[in-house]
Amino acid sequence: MKDTAVIIMAAGKGKRMKSNLPKVLHNLAGKPILNYVLETIDQLNANRKIIVVGYKSEKIKELIGDEIEYAEQVEQLGTAHAVLQTKKLLSDFKGEVLILSGDVPFLTINTLKGLLKYHKDNKFSCTLISTILENPHGYGRIIRDKEGEIEGIIEEVELPEDKKGINEINTGIYCFNKESLFQTLEKIVPDNKQGEYYLTDTVEILLKDGLNIGNIMVKDYSEVLGINTRVDLANASQKVYQRVRKHLMLQGVTIIDPNSTFIDEGIEIGEDTVIYPFTIIEKDSKIGKGCHIGPYSHLIDARIGKGVKVWASTIEDSSIEEGANIGPYAHLRPGTIIKKGAKIGNFVEVKKTVVGEASKASHLTYLGDAVIGKRVNIGAGTITCNYDGKKKNRTIIEDEVFVGSNNSLVAPVKLGKASYTGAGSTITEDVPPGNLAIARSKQKNIKGWSKRKKKSKK
Fold first, then answer.
1. Which CATH number applies to 4-223?
2. Which of 119, 298, 331, 363 is an active site residue?
3. Which end of the chain is less enclosed by CB atoms within 10 A, N or C?
């Protein structure tokens, strides 16, 4: 497709989304809407790829980077005006120009290739894609003559009453001969209710000039519909989630209740893993074979080895090795590594910490900025005091250490191999290997305290 240029329309705010974020950047099952379009056109190997940006263009450029050309539409004066902004970039280009919308995520490569072939084989000046909708509200309508030939396109806001029953809509997907496109764009005038330059007007102008218009009708309307509202976004997300779940189940993953499970596209899960209800798995997470995940778990960019169990827990940007057991109600924050066979139990929070093989923190614990060796026991209620008000400090716990319950480990501090700490201790100094450290005030019992207290209240 070296004689093809692709223009992606992404300049609008998307007013119906009711958002300050450009419409094409809204998240659709794990990635921006625009990414779906870009991934499809990458398969075309087109000579040129241009995206027309406008509203908050810096955010779109930040997402895409330098892998594509940009045309800026500073004023939002309509779709024809947007395409016209690419004229200078395409001044030396010869060939066909595909025009797509950045908010149509499910358009397939087969449809695009079919459009290009049909357009070239018949030497049309313009070929457009249409579809039939039961409820066409919000879309421009295809107008045909008595013989069924296209006469033009009327936008929804311009539609007269006698045309509102038409249910064939314009999808906003076109293929133009480059020379015909820009010559026609120059002839468009904004004589409509919106005062905008409509790209749809090119059809009527080309026909008046005696040029031929082609048309492909897509039967599956969901392939070519844009996302205009949050309702559309939710419906599109469900379509992706359904597709992902079906693929995973056919690959040997058990999903107990697909309707209450949400897994982003691109997630890898090994066979014989069981996903329980009300589980969310996002952002390039990878799960090995024979795991049990959920219920009520949320995994974000998690790397999980085989045979791991995660019960009702949240895991962010962390790695869990083979046979580890997480939860319930644990929170693994970014930078955490849980080694083989380790256990992180009820109400334990771990952040930027390595927990060694067969070590365990079974309940009610915070471990931050720590390196924990093998076969370590962390007692209930233990915390690493890693922040001194200015910087985070490291706690090192070597192999086979036994940390008593309700300990405060004030970093920077090191507990040597096979050392012990007494329950209720606040450890502020290093503990040598094999030692027992006890750091708590001596208990004092005051006789008659209850009686004196009662008397003082009278």
1. 3.90.550.10
2. 363
3. C
